[in-house]
Amino acid sequence: MSEIADAFSVSTRTIHKWLNQHDELHDAVQVGVDAFNSRVERALAERAIGFFVTIKEEVRDEQRKVIQPAVRRYYPPDPTSIIFFLKNRMKNKYRDVHNVNVNQRRFKSPEEAMATIRDFSSREIRG
After folding, report:
1. Which of 49, 62, 81, 86 could share a disulfide with 94, CB 3.0–4.6 Å?
2. Cut 0.70: pTM above it
């Protein structure tokens, strides 16, 4: 919003006020935001899978301008972009925190706990 405020020489607070008062202005700004979000999403996907860029270099000679052949440069996949993409798009599979439900049994006394441990240990030895 600060770019819009600068363009109109007003504060960002004024821009927010105008957006709330004028639905057409709000919708127009939202179209720009949506287009920008799509570009960022595409750029992140390209960084995640790698991409090529064609670069044309111009070299000036004393007599004339000489254009060198185009050079293709490869940018390999970026692990950080891959991780970011997976954690946000496939949250259930790639999130950092996994909730594990553990049923805990509470013993009434230390003797009951020790008896359970002895019973478990004897089953392990026999098993």
Report:
1. 86
2. no
Domain that holds residue 44: 2-126
Alpha-carbon distance 77 to 108, whole Å? 57
Which residue(s) pair with 78 in the sheet?
none
Q: How far is CA 23 from the centre of its chain?
A: 30
In sequence order, the β-bridge partners of residue 8 are none
Report the distance separating Cα 46 and Cα 28, nearest Å: 28
Rounded Cα gap, residues 66 and 109, in angstroms: 90
Q: How far is Cα 59 from Cα 92, in angstroms, rounded to an integer? A: 52
Mean pLDDT of 54-58: 81
- What pLDDT is recorded for position 13? 93
Mean pLDDT of the chain: 83
Structural domain tally of the chain? 1
